[in-house]
Amino acid sequence: MSTFDALREQLLDAAEEFSGGGDALSGILSGMVDDVDRMLGEKLEIFPVCHHSPASALAMTRRLRDKRPKVVYLELCEDLQPLLSELRNCRLPVALQAFATRLDGFPAGSGPLSVVAPVTEASAEYQAIAYALDTPGVELVLVDRSVDHVFQWLPREPADAGTGTGTAPDGHASPGSPAPSGGAASPGGAVSPGGAASPGGEADDGQDEEAALHGDAVGVEIGDLRPGFAELEAYLLHHGKVRHWSEWWDQYVEQPLAGADHDTYRQAMALVGSLFRRLRPSSGDRLAVDEERERYMWARIREHLAASGADPAECLYVCGAFHAVSRVAEFGLDSGAPPYTVTPRTATQWLYGLIPSSHSAIEAQFGLAQGSVSIAAATWAKATARGGVTPYRLAGQQGGRAGSGRTGKAGKNGKAGTAGKPVAPEPAPDRLSGFLAAPPALDGLDEDELRGWCVDIVRLARRNGYLASTADAIAVFETSILLAGVRGRARPTPYDFADAAVTCIEKDAVPGRRDVRRLCEILLGGDRVGVVGYEALPPLARDVYDRLEPLGIDLGRRTQQRVLLDLTANPELRPCSDLLWMLRYLLPDDAVRPIMGARRLGERPIQESWDLAIGRHQRSIVELGYEGVTVEQVLEQRLRRKVRDPRATAGTALEAVEDAILYLGGGRFADELGARAVELLAAERTVDDAPEVLRRIRRLLAHYRATGPGLPAWCEAFVTAGYAHYCTLLPSAFADDTGVRQVGAMLGFLFSMEGLALSLGCDRTQLELAVRQSHPEAPAKVALLWAAETQLGLLSRDELRARCDGLLDNPLVVPAFPLYLSGFVQALDPVPGLAPFVVEALSKAFARLPDPVLLPWLPTLITTLRRNVPELVPVLVREAGRTFPGGLAELDGWTPPWERPAAPARAVRAAPAPSGPVTGLLARHPAACDAVAGLLGCPADWPERPAGGVPDAGEERVRALLGRYPATAGAVAALLGG
Amino acid sequence: MNNEMLRAPAEVKYAEELDWLESVDDGPKPFSWRLSPKMVRLFILGSERSDGLDREIPQKWFGDRSFVERSIVTLASDRGLLLIGDPGTGKSWLAELLSAAICRNSTLVVQGTAGTTEDHIKYSWNVSMVIAKGQSRESMIPSPIMTAMERGMIGRFEELTRSTSDVQDALISILSEKYVSIPELDTDNTVFARPGFSIIATANSRDRGVNDLSSALKRRFNFVRIPVVTNRTSEAEIVRFRTTELLRRHRIELDVPPTLLDVLLQSFADLRAAAASAASEDEKLESALSTAEQIGVLEDAILHSHFFGDRALRAETLGGALVGSLARRSPEDLAILNKYWHGVVEPRSRKDGGEWTGFLEGGRQAISTLS
């Protein structure tokens, strides 16, 4: 005779009445009772829970106090166990995280994989953890599959599960939006990709930021209970006259169970779990995964019991209500199913840590209604404050109410209790019939509480710019009660109150940043953001905190803080500045932000000012900690990875070299990166990033010349390789569709590095040949080629001028002249000596080109100049300043230099040869010089020297001076020993 | 009487239903309400089996349940109700249903316009009677609002923000003191509102900034914002409900094929998405693309096919009607529609075929005629 026979009969009768019996309905109804019956009959006590349910937490606490189990099995990934003891160093909510970047056995490109399991104080699992860790002699065993299995068991086809782009475990359909029934929900499964849109969607910016605390991790959670498909949920919401799932749960399960005794709680939760289990599509992958997990958990429990020899009567198995009524063959200690073999983990290297979490992040991750976790936390606080139950708390737990002392005491009491009272399992009486038959006994109207809310919301609204007054508080109070009445509730729930507040206070526009609904959430608990304590941080994060200590700010604060570093007055802050710059490179943009100060090659900071929001970006720092032990090491890895990337170019490698010099002080590591830059450059087949390469190598050369005794070997190799590389590619770059800017940059490299390259053994003929082989067609490139030829001396300035004039005179070519000009403008960088000519060509164009040709080109000119300000503009402006008159008055009489009549060729006057013995010798024996001149093809003209060698005037004056003051010369002679 | 009216007010149209609801209503009723708040909600949102009623009450207004609840509760409180939203979101219809359910009279309406004066809100005089008999209660013409006060009913003020601010402010004293003084009379010169009096005003959110409400008046109203329905299912439901009613009114026997309804809903959804992502006003259709607009398009198409077509609704006609109703500004609206037709409808007709092909054709013709 089962406990529930009467109830079963009753339900079968009901099924008979509604649907004629013998069909699915009676199967479901009696099956549910069977499920509960089976759970109760299990030797190992199963404790069904639901996530973020204060009722679960309360029942858990009570049960733990009564039963004092020796072993607690918990449905949580088994490899997260070592993290649990670190929870006491944190302010909850925080999330246990497993993180993997080095994948093995998962599809390439699906990384980094990240799993988070958030822990809040108002949860049953925290109670179990706190009890087990702080009570001596109690063992806590996590029995769920490892995080590796979480990903192994994800349906594979949607390629990247880790990114959470609506892939496999689309945890929950947000109420109201019809989701495909297949993947609608995940009772018990509780695997949710990050970034699920939170219903409501009224989050302000700050809210968004907190909701994104988990990044794109996949979430796992204990005891997720939700209907198996969207229609069922919609039906329940509709008939419950509530708007979202959290509200339904609160009203129909949470509240009635809040004060229920252990048996009622267990039976009702198991019944709900069974309902959702039976009413779910059987075809989905999710059920298969859930059942696999159940097998896994039971296998682990059995293993542990066998190994430890613990008495099942002294153990407690805490799992989601969904799993409590599992129907897999492995269920139960007495199951006769063949032993389950656990599949091996992949070779993926998992790293574990704690990251801060927040209520809104949890809501967003698991598709809960906005504010529901906060309301749960508030309910929990209220329930515990009301007394009756002393919650467990990890000793030394940060934040929250100071209760650890009491907990300690409770723990001791617990020990005393344990010794005396082994719990004798008694058959539980049928509590379900009563629970199902009667409407939930709710608390009466808590007028004081509601009044407090009304007054507070008006105060809060006023502070946020609303014109709210006491009259509104009264109206909110009245409306809340009326709304609850219309909705058939004895007392207004927080959701009714929020609706009433919106009705009465919200007008046509939101005056500030937050609307009334958001204010209600803040009022009813507000978002709470957890902090990972110093001791629980990975070494890198601790190192960062230590090294930033000289700044004297509280790094745990979630606000933005401004720090000023006066590096001349406090040179000891210099390491802080270095670290901040590295963090700036590694962390998201707004974590550390320089307000004043920059780090560039060749600059030394005097003062810097920073906006730091390290506390708000604790997760990023923790995740950085998975990559290495110090920031320097992580940076080094990142840079190395950057240059080894298949898409890396010489430009990126040079950038990495620059970063290495800026942040890591250069040295051997910069040389290594530089060597890679040489390889990359030699392997490149395009010249697309030539401008970038030119800019960076110039900067680096300048840096090395200014700081070191000589250039590092890689720089020399880079210049010679670049010289050969660009020479080789020049003809094709001129001919194909490579941009003018790129070709200009190539020429710039070749001409400006020429001296260095030649000194390192390059051959100039290579360049000359390359230029001769170039036959561009595009006018701009033609102009560039002419400029190059001029530079190489293959074309004289006059010839160039004649060609340009020819173009301007030819009416067929005039429309293309601006394109030539574009080429000349680009030539300013590689051939700066051509600047006067470019100014001349531009002036002529402005003077002679017809407007329809000139005007459309002007924007192009301006944008080109703007894009390349540092290279082109200074040269052009300086030259123009030299050419054109400075004032208006001079303009009238001004003729451009190129129009001035050519000055009569002045007699070339050789520099006066210094007189001395050598000059005298050569003058006396001119034959050798004449022969050399003849060989070189120069006329051998000797300046007329007056016979007798009359010294020139300067020499005379010096002689006279020395004659007048002989003392100096005498002293010098004496010094020289003469 | 019902049969002789082009459009019967809700209390006449649903008189029988209201009578029945009143007869079974045993809930507490505030003031002089004819129905309890729960029954009012049931009348508006329709009944379900779980309500345990003997007959089915059809749903009359489609939208979130909480809007209706908040509106009812506001009317039961001390404050007026202001329904605010885009044009065509069903504000006036909700107001009419609420007043019909609460006091069986939804015709005490003041229409707010630029020419509305304070007399329209309070009272005016029958000039000839004043000349003949002097000023007295007989020669006074009470406004609909004053009538509502006297009878303890719901007064309605349509398009509150269209009337000027000083006129709007006449409502302040009515809403707070709940009486109107008539200084012209020596005796019997105050009209007190009886219990049950309240005001439902509607305001168009597109009119924001024209005649903004004073903060004093804002305080006396609870605002309930009615959003444009974007949920496909409920929108289909609304369109079907309203068109059935219109067809009945025009006595037209014509079927709206569900596939065509789908085309209409889809095209509106597309256009809304385009409007949401538009950068400037010029890239948005002038129309608010509300559900009422869809009903208008469908009605237009139905009437056209009934009188000029072959008495069956075709996709071509629907396409033409859609362009005809939405192209209000030339060339901006036409350009947007043209872009939509070529960028979305054309590929879709190639891909899906079916009604889209006819829709494409009809719309294209209409665009070329208009441009």
UniProtKB/TrEMBL annotation, chain A:
Residues 397-408 have a biased composition (Gly residues). It comes from the Bacteria. Residues 160-201 have a biased composition (Low complexity). Pfam families: DUF5682 (PF18934). Residues 158-210, 392-427 are annotated as: Disordered. InterPro entries: DUF5682. This is Uncharacterized protein.
Automatic annotation (TrEMBL), chain B:
Residues 80-221 form the ATPase dynein-related AAA domain. It comes from the Bacteria. Pfam families: AAA_5. GO terms for molecular function: ATP binding; ATP hydrolysis activity. This is MoxR-like ATPase. It comes from Streptosporangium sandarakinum.
